[in-house]
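Summary for the funding panel

The consortium committed to producing paired sequence-structure records for every protein in the target list. Below we show the first two records in order, beginning with the earlier of the two.
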Amino acid sequence: MGQSMVKDRLRGGHVLPVSGRDSVPGDLLRLVCVTAVLVAMAAWSYWPTMGGLFKEWQRNDDYSAGQLVPLVALFLVWRDRKTLVTCRLAPCWWGGIALLLLAQAARLYGLLFMFESADRYSLVLTVVGLVLLVAGWQMVRRTSWILLFLVLMVPFPGRIHNLISGPLQKLATMGSVFLLEVFLPRVSRQGNVVMLNENTPMAVAEACSGLRMLTAFIIVAAAIAYVVRRPRTQKGIVVLSSIPIGLLCNILRIFVTALLVLLAGAEAAERFFHDFAGLVMMPAAVMLIFGELWLMERLLVPEPN
Protein backbone atom coordinates (compact mmCIF):
# COMPACT_ATOMS: atom_id res chain seq x y z
CA MET A 1 0.00 0.00 0.00
CA GLY A 2 2.91 2.35 0.79
CA GLN A 3 4.40 1.94 -2.70
CA SER A 4 0.99 2.63 -4.29
CA MET A 5 0.57 5.83 -2.31
CA VAL A 6 4.05 6.99 -3.30
CA LYS A 7 3.32 6.39 -6.98
CA ASP A 8 0.03 8.24 -6.74
CA ARG A 9 1.78 11.14 -5.07
CA LEU A 10 4.43 11.34 -7.77
CA ARG A 11 1.83 11.17 -10.51
CA GLY A 12 -0.29 13.92 -9.01
CA GLY A 13 2.57 16.18 -8.09
CA HIS A 14 1.37 16.49 -4.48
CA VAL A 15 3.18 15.49 -1.30
CA LEU A 16 0.61 13.79 0.88
CA PRO A 17 1.12 12.65 4.45
CA VAL A 18 1.91 8.96 4.86
CA SER A 19 1.55 7.05 8.06
CA GLY A 20 3.66 4.26 9.50
CA ARG A 21 6.94 3.12 8.09
CA ASP A 22 6.31 4.90 4.79
CA SER A 23 6.44 8.36 6.41
CA VAL A 24 9.50 9.11 4.25
CA PRO A 25 8.53 8.04 0.71
CA GLY A 26 11.34 6.01 -0.83
CA ASP A 27 10.82 7.08 -4.44
CA LEU A 28 10.72 10.76 -3.52
CA LEU A 29 13.80 10.44 -1.34
CA ARG A 30 15.72 8.75 -4.14
CA LEU A 31 14.61 11.48 -6.53
CA VAL A 32 15.90 14.18 -4.17
CA CYS A 33 19.22 12.35 -3.76
CA VAL A 34 19.64 11.91 -7.51
CA THR A 35 18.83 15.59 -8.04
CA ALA A 36 21.38 16.66 -5.45
CA VAL A 37 24.07 14.47 -7.04
CA LEU A 38 23.33 15.76 -10.56
CA VAL A 39 23.36 19.40 -9.44
CA ALA A 40 26.65 18.86 -7.59
CA MET A 41 28.22 17.21 -10.65
CA ALA A 42 27.02 20.01 -12.95
CA ALA A 43 28.31 22.69 -10.54
CA TRP A 44 31.70 20.98 -10.31
CA SER A 45 31.93 20.57 -14.08
CA TYR A 46 30.90 24.15 -14.87
CA TRP A 47 32.76 25.83 -12.02
CA PRO A 48 35.43 27.33 -14.37
CA THR A 49 32.67 28.52 -16.71
CA MET A 50 30.77 30.20 -13.88
CA GLY A 51 34.00 31.78 -12.65
CA GLY A 52 34.68 33.16 -16.13
CA LEU A 53 31.15 34.57 -16.30
CA PHE A 54 31.57 36.29 -12.94
CA LYS A 55 34.85 37.88 -14.06
CA GLU A 56 33.20 39.04 -17.28
CA TRP A 57 30.36 40.66 -15.34
CA GLN A 58 32.86 42.49 -13.14
CA ARG A 59 35.17 43.83 -15.85
CA ASN A 60 32.72 44.49 -18.69
CA ASP A 61 30.20 47.21 -17.85
CA ASP A 62 28.08 46.33 -20.89
CA TYR A 63 27.11 43.02 -19.30
CA SER A 64 27.39 43.78 -15.58
CA ALA A 65 23.61 43.39 -15.21
CA GLY A 66 23.98 39.72 -16.12
CA GLN A 67 25.00 38.89 -12.57
CA LEU A 68 21.47 39.74 -11.45
CA VAL A 69 19.88 37.16 -13.74
CA PRO A 70 20.54 34.02 -11.61
CA LEU A 71 19.35 35.83 -8.47
CA VAL A 72 16.18 37.07 -10.17
CA ALA A 73 15.54 33.58 -11.59
CA LEU A 74 15.80 32.04 -8.11
CA PHE A 75 13.41 34.69 -6.77
CA LEU A 76 10.89 33.95 -9.53
CA VAL A 77 11.06 30.21 -8.75
CA TRP A 78 10.54 30.93 -5.04
CA ARG A 79 7.66 33.28 -5.87
CA ASP A 80 5.89 30.55 -7.87
CA ARG A 81 6.76 27.73 -5.46
CA LYS A 82 3.12 27.00 -4.57
CA THR A 83 2.23 26.57 -8.23
CA LEU A 84 5.33 24.57 -9.08
CA VAL A 85 4.70 22.12 -6.24
CA THR A 86 1.50 21.04 -7.98
CA CYS A 87 3.37 19.99 -11.13
CA ARG A 88 3.28 16.29 -11.95
CA LEU A 89 6.67 14.73 -11.35
CA ALA A 90 7.36 12.56 -14.37
CA PRO A 91 11.13 12.39 -15.05
CA CYS A 92 11.86 12.26 -18.77
CA TRP A 93 15.07 10.30 -18.99
CA TRP A 94 15.43 10.22 -22.77
CA GLY A 95 14.67 13.91 -23.23
CA GLY A 96 16.87 15.02 -20.35
CA ILE A 97 19.80 12.87 -21.42
CA ALA A 98 19.44 14.06 -25.03
CA LEU A 99 19.59 17.73 -23.93
CA LEU A 100 22.55 17.04 -21.65
CA LEU A 101 24.42 15.34 -24.50
CA LEU A 102 23.60 18.26 -26.79
CA ALA A 103 24.88 20.69 -24.15
CA GLN A 104 28.11 18.79 -23.78
CA ALA A 105 28.54 18.67 -27.56
CA ALA A 106 28.15 22.46 -27.68
CA ARG A 107 30.62 22.77 -24.83
CA LEU A 108 33.14 20.55 -26.59
CA TYR A 109 32.76 22.63 -29.75
CA GLY A 110 33.44 25.78 -27.74
CA LEU A 111 36.53 24.28 -26.12
CA LEU A 112 37.96 22.92 -29.38
CA PHE A 113 37.38 26.07 -31.43
CA MET A 114 37.94 28.64 -28.65
CA PHE A 115 34.31 29.77 -28.82
CA GLU A 116 33.66 30.75 -25.21
CA SER A 117 30.01 31.62 -25.74
CA ALA A 118 29.20 28.03 -26.72
CA ASP A 119 30.50 26.85 -23.36
CA ARG A 120 28.42 29.47 -21.54
CA TYR A 121 25.22 28.74 -23.44
CA SER A 122 25.74 25.03 -22.81
CA LEU A 123 25.45 25.85 -19.09
CA VAL A 124 21.90 27.14 -19.67
CA LEU A 125 21.06 24.11 -21.80
CA THR A 126 22.39 21.86 -19.05
CA VAL A 127 20.04 23.48 -16.53
CA VAL A 128 17.08 22.83 -18.86
CA GLY A 129 18.22 19.24 -19.36
CA LEU A 130 18.47 18.65 -15.61
CA VAL A 131 14.96 20.03 -15.01
CA LEU A 132 13.59 17.78 -17.75
CA LEU A 133 15.53 14.78 -16.50
CA VAL A 134 14.43 15.16 -12.89
CA ALA A 135 10.96 16.72 -13.06
CA GLY A 136 9.60 16.20 -16.58
CA TRP A 137 7.92 18.20 -19.32
CA GLN A 138 5.23 19.82 -17.18
CA MET A 139 7.83 21.45 -14.96
CA VAL A 140 9.79 22.60 -18.01
CA ARG A 141 6.65 24.17 -19.46
CA ARG A 142 5.78 25.89 -16.18
CA THR A 143 9.30 27.30 -15.83
CA SER A 144 9.95 27.90 -19.54
CA TRP A 145 10.05 31.71 -19.16
CA ILE A 146 12.50 31.47 -16.25
CA LEU A 147 14.71 28.98 -18.11
CA LEU A 148 14.73 31.23 -21.17
CA PHE A 149 15.45 34.20 -18.90
CA LEU A 150 18.76 32.55 -17.93
CA VAL A 151 20.06 33.17 -21.45
CA LEU A 152 20.27 36.88 -20.58
CA MET A 153 23.09 36.24 -18.11
CA VAL A 154 25.44 35.25 -20.96
CA PRO A 155 27.24 38.15 -22.71
CA PHE A 156 26.74 38.42 -26.45
CA PRO A 157 29.31 36.57 -28.54
CA GLY A 158 32.08 38.86 -29.77
CA ARG A 159 30.81 38.88 -33.35
CA ILE A 160 27.28 39.90 -32.30
CA HIS A 161 28.68 42.47 -29.87
CA ASN A 162 30.72 44.10 -32.64
CA LEU A 163 27.74 43.90 -35.00
CA ILE A 164 25.38 45.87 -32.75
CA SER A 165 27.77 48.11 -30.81
CA GLY A 166 28.71 50.26 -33.82
CA PRO A 167 25.11 50.94 -34.98
CA LEU A 168 24.06 51.67 -31.39
CA GLN A 169 26.88 54.20 -31.10
CA LYS A 170 25.83 55.85 -34.36
CA LEU A 171 22.15 55.96 -33.36
CA ALA A 172 23.05 57.50 -29.99
CA THR A 173 25.09 60.21 -31.72
CA MET A 174 22.46 61.00 -34.34
CA GLY A 175 19.61 61.02 -31.82
CA SER A 176 21.42 63.33 -29.41
CA VAL A 177 22.34 65.71 -32.27
CA PHE A 178 18.70 65.78 -33.37
CA LEU A 179 17.59 66.87 -29.88
CA LEU A 180 20.44 69.34 -29.46
CA GLU A 181 19.58 71.08 -32.74
CA VAL A 182 16.24 72.03 -31.19
CA PHE A 183 17.91 73.96 -28.35
CA LEU A 184 21.30 75.02 -29.68
CA PRO A 185 21.89 77.14 -32.78
CA ARG A 186 25.16 75.56 -33.90
CA VAL A 187 25.45 71.79 -33.56
CA SER A 188 27.08 69.40 -35.99
CA ARG A 189 28.21 65.81 -36.13
CA GLN A 190 31.54 64.50 -37.35
CA GLY A 191 31.34 60.74 -37.19
CA ASN A 192 30.72 59.93 -33.52
CA VAL A 193 31.86 63.35 -32.32
CA VAL A 194 29.28 66.04 -31.56
CA MET A 195 30.48 69.61 -32.12
CA LEU A 196 28.78 72.01 -29.71
CA ASN A 197 28.74 75.65 -30.80
CA GLU A 198 31.31 74.68 -33.45
CA ASN A 199 34.23 74.79 -31.00
CA THR A 200 33.43 72.28 -28.22
CA PRO A 201 33.79 68.64 -29.26
CA MET A 202 32.06 65.87 -27.31
CA ALA A 203 32.92 62.33 -28.34
CA VAL A 204 30.29 59.60 -28.09
CA ALA A 205 32.62 56.70 -27.35
CA GLU A 206 31.81 53.01 -27.73
CA ALA A 207 31.19 52.87 -23.98
CA CYS A 208 28.43 55.45 -24.54
CA SER A 209 26.68 53.37 -27.18
CA GLY A 210 24.01 52.35 -24.69
CA LEU A 211 24.66 48.61 -24.84
CA ARG A 212 25.01 48.45 -21.06
CA MET A 213 21.70 50.24 -20.61
CA LEU A 214 20.08 48.10 -23.28
CA THR A 215 21.07 44.78 -21.71
CA ALA A 216 19.94 45.98 -18.28
CA PHE A 217 16.57 47.15 -19.61
CA ILE A 218 15.93 43.86 -21.41
CA ILE A 219 16.58 41.96 -18.15
CA VAL A 220 14.26 44.25 -16.19
CA ALA A 221 11.54 44.12 -18.85
CA ALA A 222 11.69 40.30 -19.02
CA ALA A 223 11.33 40.05 -15.23
CA ILE A 224 8.41 42.50 -15.18
CA ALA A 225 6.71 40.70 -18.07
CA TYR A 226 6.88 37.43 -16.15
CA VAL A 227 5.50 38.90 -12.93
CA VAL A 228 2.54 40.87 -14.34
CA ARG A 229 -0.66 39.05 -15.21
CA ARG A 230 -1.14 39.94 -18.85
CA PRO A 231 -1.71 38.03 -22.10
CA ARG A 232 1.40 36.64 -23.76
CA THR A 233 1.10 39.17 -26.58
CA GLN A 234 1.40 42.06 -24.14
CA LYS A 235 4.28 40.35 -22.32
CA GLY A 236 6.12 40.02 -25.63
CA ILE A 237 5.46 43.68 -26.44
CA VAL A 238 6.92 44.70 -23.08
CA VAL A 239 10.13 42.74 -23.70
CA LEU A 240 10.53 44.00 -27.27
CA SER A 241 9.79 47.60 -26.26
CA SER A 242 12.76 47.53 -23.86
CA ILE A 243 15.02 47.98 -26.90
CA PRO A 244 13.64 51.37 -28.07
CA ILE A 245 13.23 52.43 -24.41
CA GLY A 246 16.91 51.70 -23.81
CA LEU A 247 17.92 53.63 -26.92
CA LEU A 248 15.72 56.59 -25.99
CA CYS A 249 17.05 56.76 -22.42
CA ASN A 250 20.64 56.68 -23.66
CA ILE A 251 19.96 59.47 -26.15
CA LEU A 252 18.42 61.57 -23.38
CA ARG A 253 21.44 60.90 -21.18
CA ILE A 254 23.85 62.09 -23.90
CA PHE A 255 21.64 65.12 -24.59
CA VAL A 256 21.68 66.23 -20.93
CA THR A 257 25.43 65.54 -20.75
CA ALA A 258 26.02 67.82 -23.76
CA LEU A 259 24.04 70.63 -22.14
CA LEU A 260 26.09 70.21 -18.95
CA VAL A 261 29.31 70.40 -20.98
CA LEU A 262 28.31 73.88 -22.10
CA LEU A 263 26.80 75.06 -18.82
CA ALA A 264 28.95 73.45 -16.11
CA GLY A 265 32.05 72.09 -17.81
CA ALA A 266 33.30 68.71 -18.94
CA GLU A 267 34.12 67.42 -15.44
CA ALA A 268 30.61 67.95 -14.10
CA ALA A 269 29.12 66.47 -17.27
CA GLU A 270 31.29 63.37 -16.97
CA ARG A 271 30.23 62.84 -13.35
CA PHE A 272 26.59 63.14 -14.38
CA PHE A 273 26.99 60.69 -17.27
CA HIS A 274 28.72 57.95 -15.27
CA ASP A 275 27.12 58.37 -11.85
CA PHE A 276 23.84 60.22 -11.52
CA ALA A 277 22.38 59.43 -14.95
CA GLY A 278 23.07 55.73 -14.54
CA LEU A 279 21.01 55.70 -11.35
CA VAL A 280 18.16 57.78 -12.76
CA MET A 281 17.72 56.00 -16.09
CA MET A 282 16.72 52.62 -14.63
CA PRO A 283 13.78 53.94 -12.54
CA ALA A 284 12.76 56.05 -15.54
CA ALA A 285 12.76 52.96 -17.76
CA VAL A 286 10.70 50.99 -15.22
CA MET A 287 8.17 53.83 -15.10
CA LEU A 288 7.98 53.83 -18.90
CA ILE A 289 7.35 50.06 -18.91
CA PHE A 290 4.52 50.34 -16.37
CA GLY A 291 3.14 53.29 -18.30
CA GLU A 292 3.15 51.12 -21.38
CA LEU A 293 1.26 48.39 -19.48
CA TRP A 294 -1.28 50.98 -18.35
CA LEU A 295 -1.83 52.13 -21.93
CA MET A 296 -2.18 48.58 -23.26
CA GLU A 297 -4.75 47.80 -20.57
CA ARG A 298 -6.93 50.63 -21.86
CA LEU A 299 -6.28 50.51 -25.58
CA LEU A 300 -5.99 46.81 -26.41
CA VAL A 301 -8.94 44.44 -26.56
CA PRO A 302 -8.51 41.64 -23.98
CA GLU A 303 -7.69 38.26 -25.46
CA PRO A 304 -10.34 35.54 -24.98
CA ASN A 305 -9.52 32.99 -22.29
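The next record, for a separate protein in the list, is shown here:
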Amino acid sequence: MNALVTGGTGFIGRRLVRQLVAQHGASSVVCLVKAPATPLERDALQTFRAQGLRLIEGDLVVNPVSTEAAPSVDVVFHLAANIDTDAPEEALLVNHRGTARLLDWIAPVSRGARIVYASSVAVHDRVAEPSEPIAENSPLTPRTAYGRTKLQGEVILRDRASVDGYSWTVLRLPTVYGPGQKPDGLFDQLIKKARSGSWLGRLDWPGRTSIIHVDDVAAAMIELAGRSEAAGEVYCLASDESLTVGELARSIGVSVGHPVRPIRIPTLPLGLVRGVVWNRAIQAAVPAFGRLAFWRLSLIVSDGFWFDTRKFRRIYTKPLKDIDEGMRGLKSEV
Protein backbone atom coordinates (compact mmCIF):
# COMPACT_ATOMS: atom_id res chain seq x y z
CA MET A 1 0.00 0.00 0.00
CA ASN A 2 1.42 3.37 -1.07
CA ALA A 3 -0.32 6.07 0.91
CA LEU A 4 -0.62 9.84 1.16
CA VAL A 5 -1.60 11.09 4.62
CA THR A 6 -2.94 14.54 5.42
CA GLY A 7 -2.90 15.52 9.07
CA GLY A 8 -0.14 12.99 9.71
CA THR A 9 1.35 14.98 12.60
CA GLY A 10 -2.01 15.15 14.39
CA PHE A 11 -3.39 12.91 17.11
CA ILE A 12 -4.79 10.13 14.90
CA GLY A 13 -2.32 10.79 12.09
CA ARG A 14 0.71 10.02 14.23
CA ARG A 15 -0.61 6.58 15.14
CA LEU A 16 -1.78 5.92 11.58
CA VAL A 17 1.64 6.75 10.13
CA ARG A 18 3.30 4.55 12.76
CA GLN A 19 1.16 1.57 11.72
CA LEU A 20 1.60 2.24 7.99
CA VAL A 21 5.39 2.34 8.38
CA ALA A 22 5.36 -0.85 10.47
CA GLN A 23 3.24 -2.70 7.91
CA HIS A 24 4.44 -1.31 4.59
CA GLY A 25 7.75 0.47 5.22
CA ALA A 26 8.71 4.14 5.34
CA SER A 27 9.14 4.37 1.57
CA SER A 28 5.42 3.67 1.07
CA VAL A 29 4.22 6.70 3.07
CA VAL A 30 4.05 10.34 1.94
CA CYS A 31 2.81 13.05 4.31
CA LEU A 32 1.44 16.43 3.32
CA VAL A 33 2.63 18.64 6.16
CA LYS A 34 2.57 22.26 7.28
CA ALA A 35 4.47 24.13 9.98
CA PRO A 36 3.87 22.34 13.31
CA ALA A 37 1.70 24.13 15.84
CA THR A 38 2.43 22.04 18.96
CA PRO A 39 5.41 20.22 20.50
CA LEU A 40 3.81 16.86 19.65
CA GLU A 41 3.54 17.90 16.00
CA ARG A 42 7.19 19.03 15.98
CA ASP A 43 8.27 15.73 17.49
CA ALA A 44 6.25 13.85 14.86
CA LEU A 45 7.94 15.75 12.03
CA GLN A 46 11.36 14.96 13.45
CA THR A 47 10.41 11.28 13.70
CA PHE A 48 9.13 11.24 10.11
CA ARG A 49 12.36 12.79 8.85
CA ALA A 50 14.47 10.33 10.83
CA GLN A 51 12.48 7.45 9.33
CA GLY A 52 13.02 8.73 5.81
CA LEU A 53 9.38 9.48 4.99
CA ARG A 54 8.75 11.74 2.03
CA LEU A 55 7.32 15.02 3.33
CA ILE A 56 5.56 17.48 1.03
CA GLU A 57 5.05 20.97 2.39
CA GLY A 58 1.59 22.32 1.79
CA ASP A 59 -1.50 23.93 3.23
CA LEU A 60 -5.06 22.84 2.47
CA VAL A 61 -6.49 26.34 2.79
CA VAL A 62 -4.12 27.64 0.08
CA ASN A 63 -4.65 27.18 -3.64
CA PRO A 64 -2.72 25.32 -4.93
CA VAL A 65 -2.20 23.16 -1.88
CA SER A 66 1.50 22.70 -2.63
CA THR A 67 4.04 23.81 -5.20
CA GLU A 68 5.03 20.13 -5.51
CA ALA A 69 3.02 17.77 -7.66
CA ALA A 70 0.81 15.28 -5.86
CA PRO A 71 2.34 11.80 -5.56
CA SER A 72 0.81 8.78 -7.27
CA VAL A 73 -0.54 6.57 -4.46
CA ASP A 74 -3.05 3.78 -3.88
CA VAL A 75 -4.72 5.38 -0.87
CA VAL A 76 -5.22 8.90 0.50
CA PHE A 77 -5.96 9.11 4.21
CA HIS A 78 -7.53 12.53 4.66
CA LEU A 79 -7.31 13.38 8.35
CA ALA A 80 -6.33 17.07 8.28
CA ALA A 81 -9.04 19.13 9.99
CA ASN A 82 -9.79 21.71 12.60
CA ILE A 83 -11.58 19.72 15.32
CA ASP A 84 -12.23 22.64 17.66
CA THR A 85 -15.97 22.64 18.32
CA ASP A 86 -15.62 26.14 19.83
CA ALA A 87 -14.21 27.58 16.60
CA PRO A 88 -16.30 29.86 14.38
CA GLU A 89 -17.11 28.73 10.85
CA GLU A 90 -14.43 30.93 9.25
CA ALA A 91 -11.77 29.09 11.28
CA LEU A 92 -13.02 25.71 10.01
CA LEU A 93 -12.47 26.22 6.28
CA VAL A 94 -9.92 23.42 6.18
CA ASN A 95 -12.71 20.92 6.86
CA HIS A 96 -14.60 21.56 3.62
CA ARG A 97 -12.74 24.04 1.43
CA GLY A 98 -9.54 22.21 2.32
CA THR A 99 -11.10 18.94 1.16
CA ALA A 100 -12.01 20.49 -2.20
CA ARG A 101 -8.51 21.89 -2.65
CA LEU A 102 -6.94 18.57 -1.75
CA LEU A 103 -9.05 16.92 -4.45
CA ASP A 104 -7.97 19.61 -6.93
CA TRP A 105 -4.31 18.95 -6.11
CA ILE A 106 -4.47 15.17 -6.41
CA ALA A 107 -6.87 15.16 -9.40
CA PRO A 108 -4.11 14.34 -11.95
CA VAL A 109 -3.23 11.15 -10.05
CA SER A 110 -6.39 10.24 -8.09
CA ARG A 111 -8.07 8.03 -10.71
CA GLY A 112 -8.23 4.52 -9.29
CA ALA A 113 -7.17 5.56 -5.79
CA ARG A 114 -9.16 5.09 -2.57
CA ILE A 115 -9.73 8.16 -0.40
CA VAL A 116 -10.47 7.48 3.26
CA TYR A 117 -12.09 10.48 4.93
CA ALA A 118 -12.07 10.90 8.70
CA SER A 119 -15.46 12.38 9.54
CA SER A 120 -17.30 12.79 12.84
CA VAL A 121 -20.38 11.83 14.82
CA ALA A 122 -21.04 15.59 14.85
CA VAL A 123 -22.37 15.38 11.28
CA HIS A 124 -25.36 13.52 12.73
CA ASP A 125 -25.92 15.22 16.06
CA ARG A 126 -29.48 15.34 17.45
CA VAL A 127 -32.34 17.81 17.22
CA ALA A 128 -34.67 15.95 19.56
CA GLU A 129 -34.21 13.72 22.60
CA PRO A 130 -32.76 10.45 21.27
CA SER A 131 -34.52 7.14 21.63
CA GLU A 132 -31.96 4.98 19.80
CA PRO A 133 -28.30 5.04 18.83
CA ILE A 134 -26.98 6.80 15.74
CA ALA A 135 -26.53 4.61 12.65
CA GLU A 136 -25.09 5.42 9.24
CA ASN A 137 -28.57 6.25 7.88
CA SER A 138 -29.62 8.41 10.83
CA PRO A 139 -30.59 12.04 10.08
CA LEU A 140 -27.77 14.48 9.35
CA THR A 141 -28.61 17.44 11.59
CA PRO A 142 -25.35 19.02 12.81
CA ARG A 143 -25.79 21.72 15.45
CA THR A 144 -22.23 23.06 15.42
CA ALA A 145 -20.10 24.76 12.78
CA TYR A 146 -17.65 21.88 13.15
CA GLY A 147 -20.32 19.30 12.35
CA ARG A 148 -21.61 21.32 9.40
CA THR A 149 -18.16 21.75 7.84
CA LYS A 150 -17.27 18.07 8.26
CA LEU A 151 -20.55 17.14 6.57
CA GLN A 152 -19.77 19.51 3.72
CA GLY A 153 -16.42 17.75 3.34
CA GLU A 154 -18.21 14.41 3.01
CA VAL A 155 -20.53 15.79 0.33
CA ILE A 156 -17.65 17.28 -1.66
CA LEU A 157 -15.78 13.98 -1.53
CA ARG A 158 -18.75 11.94 -2.74
CA ASP A 159 -19.82 14.41 -5.44
CA ARG A 160 -16.45 14.49 -7.16
CA ALA A 161 -15.74 10.75 -7.13
CA SER A 162 -17.37 9.87 -10.46
CA VAL A 163 -15.65 12.71 -12.32
CA ASP A 164 -12.20 12.27 -10.77
CA GLY A 165 -12.36 8.48 -10.85
CA TYR A 166 -11.49 7.64 -7.25
CA SER A 167 -13.39 5.53 -4.74
CA TRP A 168 -14.06 6.68 -1.21
CA THR A 169 -14.76 5.43 2.30
CA VAL A 170 -16.11 7.72 5.03
CA LEU A 171 -15.41 6.86 8.66
CA ARG A 172 -17.48 8.75 11.22
CA LEU A 173 -15.66 8.91 14.54
CA PRO A 174 -16.93 9.43 18.10
CA THR A 175 -14.65 10.53 20.95
CA VAL A 176 -11.20 9.15 20.17
CA TYR A 177 -8.81 8.72 23.08
CA GLY A 178 -5.24 7.61 23.66
CA PRO A 179 -1.75 9.07 24.01
CA GLY A 180 -1.63 12.64 22.73
CA GLN A 181 -5.43 13.01 22.86
CA LYS A 182 -7.23 16.31 22.44
CA PRO A 183 -6.41 18.76 25.26
CA ASP A 184 -9.53 19.69 27.22
CA GLY A 185 -11.57 17.08 25.34
CA LEU A 186 -13.93 14.71 27.15
CA PHE A 187 -11.22 12.35 28.39
CA ASP A 188 -8.85 15.13 29.43
CA GLN A 189 -11.65 16.85 31.34
CA LEU A 190 -12.71 13.65 33.13
CA ILE A 191 -9.09 12.86 34.08
CA LYS A 192 -8.64 16.35 35.53
CA LYS A 193 -11.92 16.20 37.43
CA ALA A 194 -11.13 12.77 38.85
CA ARG A 195 -7.74 13.96 40.11
CA SER A 196 -9.20 17.11 41.64
CA GLY A 197 -12.22 15.37 43.15
CA SER A 198 -14.53 17.87 41.44
CA TRP A 199 -18.23 17.28 42.14
CA LEU A 200 -18.91 17.86 38.42
CA GLY A 201 -16.82 14.83 37.65
CA ARG A 202 -18.74 12.79 40.21
CA LEU A 203 -22.22 13.45 38.80
CA ASP A 204 -23.57 10.22 37.37
CA TRP A 205 -24.40 11.58 33.92
CA PRO A 206 -26.74 9.05 32.26
CA GLY A 207 -26.11 9.86 28.60
CA ARG A 208 -24.40 7.09 26.66
CA THR A 209 -21.50 8.16 24.46
CA SER A 210 -19.38 6.12 22.07
CA ILE A 211 -15.59 6.03 22.30
CA ILE A 212 -12.73 4.33 20.47
CA HIS A 213 -8.99 4.05 21.07
CA VAL A 214 -6.76 5.87 18.59
CA ASP A 215 -4.83 2.70 17.68
CA ASP A 216 -8.08 0.94 16.79
CA VAL A 217 -9.04 3.87 14.55
CA ALA A 218 -5.71 3.68 12.73
CA ALA A 219 -5.92 -0.10 12.28
CA ALA A 220 -9.50 0.09 10.98
CA MET A 221 -8.58 2.85 8.54
CA ILE A 222 -5.78 0.78 7.04
CA GLU A 223 -7.87 -2.38 6.74
CA LEU A 224 -10.94 -0.70 5.26
CA ALA A 225 -8.78 1.20 2.78
CA GLY A 226 -7.85 -2.14 1.26
CA ARG A 227 -11.30 -3.74 1.32
CA SER A 228 -13.15 -3.50 -1.99
CA GLU A 229 -16.52 -3.88 -0.26
CA ALA A 230 -15.83 -0.73 1.78
CA ALA A 231 -15.71 1.45 -1.35
CA GLY A 232 -18.56 3.95 -1.44
CA GLU A 233 -19.57 3.16 2.13
CA VAL A 234 -19.98 5.11 5.36
CA TYR A 235 -19.13 3.51 8.71
CA CYS A 236 -19.76 4.63 12.30
CA LEU A 237 -16.68 3.53 14.25
CA ALA A 238 -16.69 2.87 17.99
CA SER A 239 -15.66 0.28 20.54
CA ASP A 240 -18.08 -2.45 21.55
CA GLU A 241 -19.03 -0.63 24.77
CA SER A 242 -22.17 1.39 25.52
CA LEU A 243 -20.94 3.44 28.45
CA THR A 244 -22.71 6.35 30.05
CA VAL A 245 -20.63 9.43 30.76
CA GLY A 246 -20.93 8.58 34.46
CA GLU A 247 -19.59 5.05 33.90
CA LEU A 248 -16.79 6.47 31.78
CA ALA A 249 -15.84 8.89 34.57
CA ARG A 250 -15.66 6.03 37.08
CA SER A 251 -13.49 3.88 34.81
CA ILE A 252 -11.15 6.80 34.18
CA GLY A 253 -10.98 7.60 37.90
CA VAL A 254 -9.89 4.05 38.74
CA SER A 255 -7.29 4.04 35.95
CA VAL A 256 -5.65 7.27 37.16
CA GLY A 257 -5.70 6.22 40.81
CA HIS A 258 -8.47 8.60 41.91
CA PRO A 259 -11.67 6.55 42.21
CA VAL A 260 -14.81 8.59 41.62
CA ARG A 261 -17.66 8.33 44.14
CA PRO A 262 -20.74 8.93 41.98
CA ILE A 263 -23.43 11.43 42.84
CA ARG A 264 -26.78 10.19 41.58
CA ILE A 265 -28.90 12.76 39.74
CA PRO A 266 -32.51 12.51 40.99
CA THR A 267 -35.10 11.51 38.42
CA LEU A 268 -37.21 14.69 38.63
CA PRO A 269 -34.38 17.24 38.13
CA LEU A 270 -32.93 15.04 35.37
CA GLY A 271 -36.28 14.99 33.57
CA LEU A 272 -36.58 18.76 33.89
CA VAL A 273 -33.09 19.30 32.44
CA ARG A 274 -33.86 16.99 29.53
CA GLY A 275 -37.09 18.85 28.89
CA VAL A 276 -35.20 22.14 28.75
CA VAL A 277 -32.22 21.10 26.61
CA TRP A 278 -34.38 19.39 23.98
CA ASN A 279 -36.97 22.16 23.77
CA ARG A 280 -36.48 23.82 20.38
CA ALA A 281 -37.88 27.17 21.46
CA ILE A 282 -35.47 27.30 24.39
CA GLN A 283 -32.58 26.15 22.16
CA ALA A 284 -33.30 29.01 19.78
CA ALA A 285 -33.49 31.52 22.63
CA VAL A 286 -30.12 30.61 24.16
CA PRO A 287 -27.64 33.48 23.56
CA ALA A 288 -24.68 32.75 21.30
CA PHE A 289 -22.17 32.64 24.17
CA GLY A 290 -24.10 29.84 25.90
CA ARG A 291 -25.00 27.62 22.96
CA LEU A 292 -22.01 25.30 23.09
CA ALA A 293 -22.42 24.68 26.82
CA PHE A 294 -26.14 24.05 26.26
CA TRP A 295 -25.29 21.65 23.39
CA ARG A 296 -22.74 19.75 25.49
CA LEU A 297 -25.23 19.40 28.34
CA SER A 298 -27.77 17.83 25.99
CA LEU A 299 -25.21 15.17 25.02
CA ILE A 300 -24.53 14.00 28.57
CA VAL A 301 -28.05 13.99 30.03
CA SER A 302 -29.28 11.89 27.08
CA ASP A 303 -27.73 9.32 24.73
CA GLY A 304 -26.28 12.02 22.51
CA PHE A 305 -23.23 10.74 20.65
CA TRP A 306 -23.96 7.00 20.91
CA PHE A 307 -23.28 4.85 17.85
CA ASP A 308 -24.84 1.69 16.50
CA THR A 309 -21.70 -0.11 15.26
CA ARG A 310 -23.25 -3.22 13.70
CA LYS A 311 -22.36 -2.23 10.14
CA PHE A 312 -18.76 -1.48 11.12
CA ARG A 313 -18.38 -4.71 13.09
CA ARG A 314 -19.68 -6.81 10.20
CA ILE A 315 -16.71 -5.75 8.07
CA TYR A 316 -14.12 -5.18 10.81
CA THR A 317 -14.06 -8.14 13.18
CA LYS A 318 -10.73 -7.68 14.96
CA PRO A 319 -10.80 -7.16 18.75
CA LEU A 320 -11.15 -3.57 19.92
CA LYS A 321 -9.75 -2.14 23.14
CA ASP A 322 -12.22 -1.65 25.96
CA ILE A 323 -11.87 1.36 28.26
CA ASP A 324 -9.78 -0.47 30.87
CA GLU A 325 -7.26 -1.73 28.32
CA GLY A 326 -7.17 1.60 26.52
CA MET A 327 -6.59 3.55 29.73
CA ARG A 328 -3.78 1.20 30.79
CA GLY A 329 -1.99 1.99 27.54
CA LEU A 330 -2.67 5.70 27.92
CA LYS A 331 -1.29 5.73 31.45
CA SER A 332 1.89 3.90 30.39
CA GLU A 333 2.66 6.32 27.55
CA VAL A 334 1.72 9.70 29.05
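Regarding this second record: The two ends are 31 Å apart (CA to CA). The chain has a mean pLDDT of 94.
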